[in-house]
Design a protein that fits this description.
The complex is a heterotrimer.
Chain A lengths: L19 H23 L1 H24 L10 H12 L6 H15 L13 H12 L35 H7 L9 H8 L5 H6 L11 H13 L6 H20 L7 H6 L3 H8 L10 H21 L6 H18 L20
Helix pairs in contact in A: 1-2, 1-3, 1-9, 2-3, 2-4, 3-4, 3-5, 4-5, 5-14, 9-12, 10-12, 10-13, 13-14
Chain B lengths: L12 H8 L12 H6 L4 H24 L9 H23 L1 H7 L10 H11 L4 H31 L1 E2 L2 E2 L9 H4 L1 H29 L8
Antiparallel strand pairs in B: 1-2
Helix pairs in contact in B: 1-7, 3-4, 3-6, 3-7, 4-6, 6-7, 7-9
Chain C lengths: L1 H7 L7 H13 L17 H45 L5 E8 L2 E4 L8 E7 L5 E12 L2 E10 L4 E9 L14 H4 L5 E2 L14 E3 L9 E3 L5 H24 L1 H5 L2
Parallel strand pairs in C: 8-9
Antiparallel strand pairs in C: 1-2, 1-3, 3-4, 4-5, 5-6, 6-7
Classes of the chains: A mainly alpha, B mainly alpha, C alpha+beta.
Amino acid sequence: MANRGIAIRTSPHLKRVLTVDQIMRGVILALLPIAAWSVWQFGLSVLLLLLTTTGVAALTEWALARAAGQGNTLQNGSVIITGLLLGLTLPPGFPLWMAAVAACIGVALGKWLFGGLGYNVMNPALVGRAFVQAAFPKAIATWSPPFAPGRFTEPIPSTLTPPFMQPIPIADWIKGLELDAWTGATPLAVQRFQHLETPVWDLFAGTVAGSAGETSALLILICGLWLAWQRMLDWRIPASVMAGAVFIALPFWLIDPGLYPSPAFVLCSGGLMLGAWFMASDMVASPVTPAGVVIYGLFIGVLTVLIRLFGGLVEGVMYAILIANALSPWVSDWTQPRVYGSKGRGRADGQPSD
Amino acid sequence: MSELLNTPERLTPDTFLRGLWQENPVFTMLLGMCPVLAVTGTTLNALAMGLATTFVLVGSSLLVSLLRHWIPKQVRIASYIVIIATFVTLVDYAIQAISLELYAALGAFIQLIVVNCVILGRAEAYASKQRLHTTFVNSLGMGLGFSLALLALGTVREILGQGTLLGVPVLPEGFQPWVIMALPPGGFFVLGSWLLVFNWLGPRRARRDLVASGATIHVR
Amino acid sequence: MASLATESHPEVGTSSRMEGAVGELHRAIPQADRSAPKPPGYAVSPLRLLLALGGVALFAGLAVSLVDQLTAPIIAEQYRLRTEQAVFGVLPGATQLRALHLSANGIAEGAPSVKGEMPLYAAYDPAGKLLGIAIIGSGAGYAGPVQAMFAYRPDCRCITASKVLRSNETPGFGDRLGVDPEFLENFRALDARLNAEGTGLAHPIVAVRHGTKTEPWQIDALAGATISSRALARAADSAANRAIPWIERNIDRLNSP
């Protein structure tokens, strides 16, 4: 632009222009510490898992973008985020071939079926995860202990399962580790079935079992806040997700603290933090109006806790976000602000509302 | 072809083959989706459903064709429905007598054949205007096309969802079944994939035919 | 009907290609109204409509009743075989079956005839000794009701077998209820003693989380399928609570085949 003299632009005259590529790069940067912690915690397996999901997602994107005649869309980086996020939501010892299936389905079905970046109705990473959750329900509920000795030299046995085969059992491997406190359950499951709460500090610091990238609430919070400070993320979404979760969890906890989890536990356990900061905030799949964003976030928070407390699953973040994604065009439509100078509510396309 | 249907069709191989491919009730016309999605969890169910539907389709089409000069326009739909329902009831009894297990697996979808639009569609669009022998051949083709489509879904879903074909293991020991394929969403996924294949093959074939006939095609 | 047929085919000798179309034309515009400017096909005598519908209905009735006559005995036999297989499956060694039902007034002979009556099957060995009674119950599962048959043995006052008759549980999880050997071990001798008054079970049959079974009336749930296991426990509990008090009260009658 510089050698063309004065740049003349129409409004809006923004002081700072954030391009899609910049935002995507920022999100990747914010995800890297979380990924690094996850690799430190679970070792080689998670590294392989993240490389697989990211690689397969990128490959699928490249092939489908070419088929759709959109050229190379890899450099906008959105697919890297999809791959990383998907890897972070899977159990650390998840067989790599299943992770590849998840990445391929997520990008193909969640994104390109609708026309690529900007058209996806739902978060592609979660579409991929939902598919493998339904296809391989046993493998996706098999957890492995954090900080296993020798985790950097050999992967969890189930990681290297041959394609299309059942996961290699890890019971013997876990026995060989001689961990005393390992029960094979995540803090969420322990709370749900035995009503024992893991200390919130452990959840906060991330020294517990769980999906690869969801364990450390603190780290996710820091990375998310940095993104929000960089204005690459709408802080109202995670804030309202957390508010919604607390709002619904608090009364139950006050009625019976022995049975229901405390709000702090609700916030820091499972995938709520990761979901709130990095998945619910997907720019394409969330509503566009300020009021809509808040409704959307509250809905996710409330639904997550309801699924956790009363549903058939111990964790509900994924389905809550997917359902909210599906509803978000409606939410945008209901919450259109009044068009300046008009009476009643207007619509974004300039047509009078009906 | 469709604009000629008011005049009797001459019996050609196409009369039969249309239903299998070009006007396949499932993959081209997207009719009768309810059983296609619901009872294709296993190959056997898909096959039984396909054959039951074929029987009802052929039987009712023949009767409609036979009575085409006697049934006034005003009451034709009512008459067709009664005819179709009769054949469905026969099939219902027959399946119960053959195997209760199969009857339980197909559930309400046997009775629901009566609302399968492939059958009413055939009665209205073809059998009510065509002679007996072409009706027989055409409806048999349609029925077999429907059965083939059900089988296409059923085999994929059973192999992926359970690792078996007609209950016999076909994949190596230790194969991980894709549970979702045996569940209702699997029906949608597999149907979608087959439609993708057919929609990809269809235009290619049409283009090849056009090129063969000397047309120039502009490709983006 | 014969007169109608000739009316539909007035032009004898037209080419076969035209036959259908011409026939249809004449069908659409009946002779009497041919000059009237009415839209085609809107003036058919009600009698003809009635005849057409009546004819079709007559055919339908005849066909259905004929096939019903032909298949009814086969179908009844199929159902009887299925019940027999299920009962003999849960009470091995049995060779004779006695169908009973439980109504509000107690146990009566024969299969249930009114909705709400509960079928019972007393099974006897070749010597005519009562082996046990098969009872049927259902409980809400993960995807609809789970219906199952249970074998109650009066000699040990316990449930000794279960067979899932109908369920929609998730493949690979809930559907292991009927096949998982470790789970079926629960029914080796599931305690079903009555309380002191003989009005219900002394201990309700409940499913407990996998690996935490401590009492003989508990069912150790399948790992990963707690809801389906609970459904089966509820089925057993409701069936036992309803049937066993009556069975125990009528045990002398049941003991003789």
